[in-house]
Amino acid sequence: MERPFAITLEVGTSRHNKTGTWRVERPVYLDRLPPCNEACPAGENIQGWLYHAESGDYELAWRKLMEDNPLPAVMGRVCYHPCQTACNRGKLDEEVGINSVEHFLGDLAIEKGWVPETARADTGKQVLIIGAGPSGLSAAYHLRRQGHSVTIYEAGANPGGMMRYGIPKYRLPREVLDAEIQRIEAMGVEIFLNHKVEDLSAVLAEGHFDAIFLAIGAEIGKRAYVPAGESARILDAVNFLHSMEGQTPPLLGRRVAIYGGGNTAMDAARTAKRLGATEAVVVYRRTRDRMPAHDIEVEEAVEEGVEMRWLSTVKHADAGKLLLEKMTLDEKGMPVATGEFEELEADSLILALGQEVDLELLGNVEGVVVADGVVQVDRNMMTGVPGLFAGGDMVPGDRTVTVGVGHGKLAAKNIDAWLRGTNYSRPERHELAAFEMLNTWYYSDAPQTVRAKLDVARRRSTFDEVVQGLDESNALFEARRCLSCGNCFECDNCYGVCPDNSVVKLGPGLRYEFDYDYCKGCGICVQECPCGAIRMEPEII
Amino acid sequence: MPFQPIKFYQTGSFVVGNRLLSEDQRSVQSSEDRTNSLTLGHRACQGCGEALGARYALDAAMRASGNQIVVANATGCLEVFTTPFPETSWQIPWIHSLFGNSAAVGTGIAAALRAKGRHDIRVVAQAGDGGTVDIGFGPLSGMFERNDDVLFICYDNEAYMNTGVQRSGATPPAARTATTDAVGPHPGEDFGKGKNLPLIAMAHEIPYVATATVAELRDLEYKVEKAMSFHGARYIHVLVPCPLGWGSAPSDTIRLSRMAKETGLFPVFEAEGGDVISVSKIRHPLPVEEYLRPQRRYQHLFRPQPNTETIGRIQAIADKNISRFGLLQSEPE
Hints:
By secondary structure, chain A is an alpha/beta fold. Helix content of chain A is 29%, strand content 17%. Among the domains of chain A are: 14-31 and 488-538, Alpha-Beta Plaits (2-Layer Sandwich); 126-220 and 356-419, FAD/NAD(P)-binding domain (3-Layer(bba) Sandwich); 226-353, FAD/NAD(P)-binding domain (3-Layer(bba) Sandwich), CATH 3.50.50.60.
């Protein structure tokens, strides 16, 4: 080649110079486990469905949500959202209102009539589920999707379990519950109502079913012995809330005392208020910070005028009045009697001291282990009897709808594996995406959108739903507050900030890859990744 | 922010792109077909701010001019690491010049293009801080005075890095360089020296002057695009951290640029005809100490114990910038 004067070498591009050889550490893309997903008892891929909600594709978001939870509209109302407690955004401004977006998606699905994806081809296997509560319905849904035939025996007159007979209407309107249950029925799940299983061994002996999932809940109110005069009116909270589904509401009188500090106590107190009680007083033996009830429930109850009597136990009940004994906490936080007494005027006393499982149906089935009043299951949710699984409130664990739905899903996965003669093993969990791994500079300042609450005056007198949903624009805003902790959301930052052009953009949905021929390993991409989806690793030579 | 911020997209306008943005809302750098004016294989150190700043600025200038630019480059790091004979990393029309005369070469190219009637081709001249504030200052001032149709971009890394980190007229007070060693009663660069070139450029009352950092890409791209919309002499001063000369971690390049702006030490603003028309407000105010501490050129301020007097004097410079340019926001954006 003819070259200009004094030029001896052929001119070329610097691409010949593979600067990747300088590197001692290399950046690698990875997915980390977002704290919301980790915290969800129902095992939802929260960040996964928020991702679609962020782009306004609500149907896809709902479908992603439905992969784990068949009751989004219910859960968007009654879940105590541990995901939000775990949310990293809480350390920045306020946590993402995950529950409110779930509420919105659930309602939208009902409004638009979206239906779940059709079940897989029929396997010919028959599964019996005993109990149509959150856990039974969840298991039914997931098993049906796997192509199994599902039958539910439900003791009550309507399906829903504690969602219907425990959670008051002002927290969960029944038409929402009905719509989501009907959607599961429409998939081909058969529910027999008023069908109480008295003797499990008979069902087992019949051998009609290939697997059985027990989910009868814990529906018996715990009885504490309260010495009482003859005319004292004492009810138990489970029966009281159950009777709210009947035609005639129970008579309580003007002044109502509720004994206990859990969510059921709050529900009972708030329901009493709505039935016209001028005074609803919660009597609890410890203090607010030790109360098992969730903060939101306590706050809303107080807003509605429910009074609290801390550090007190009921010693004696009489017509129109209660004798309370004052308590104090010892250094371990346990309540100790003080010997001081006081009176509280009350026309009726509602006991909300926890619930027990009605284990009568177990009879003499061999192999089922009961400890502390609940049925013991292994990691696969199976009891000691092969093919007999159990979940929800009747097994150890927190007693919430969300936990129940999670149990149902996990049981379904294991039942499915068992029916196919395989083993279900949980996928390995990714490393947790901690707040410190994020570069929060990049996130817009955007405080949480609060769901409107019903006016307090109306809340005290009616059973209208207290917490209203978000509309489309603020649900979208809320979804977009997600930080996408630990998982790439394609912000192009790594692609932009690389001084060595060593990040290759693969196109929408395909993320990026590093060009290790040229990457010098400076680590700017790791530092400037907003969501902590890149890590430096030592170069192996 | 002088441009319309994008709201509610998780990351707003802070990141380079975002999958939720439409094409016209995206930055030049987020595009798969950006020019990559500076391509793979250049020999800049790990985490070089200048390599990043040059690609940001020139890619934006390419888009703004419809890919019709000629670039005149002064000697310095930017030339040494991109064009060691026989290789080059430049993917745009590019001409080498001497250390001090890229403004003059730019002027000449502009004159030649005018003579040939090629009004569609625009000229960019660029240099480091040494080639701008010291050695090339005469030709640059002349270019401003004549209002030649050239955009001059200075990549300021605050010393002569290529030749071994010697002090320049842009080296900040107290910074250690090879020629302002951290010894004696007043270690590092003296207070009260150096030149503020953006203000000098404004004093020439040229059409457009702006400052920017590599930490705010969208701001930088906006300013380059805006500069390309003017004819006559324009000047953009970009702060580009140098891990080698500053003694900072290569991964901290963008973080340090961000902190320089957030502390108020490097005011980010734009001016037309000699008057400031907008400033980038401080988002999360920061004491200068946070910016100084990660840099080895300032380590004498913290060892054996913090030199509070000198740190206080640097804080006073930041505070003066904050009040002079109005860098604090009255209410959150």
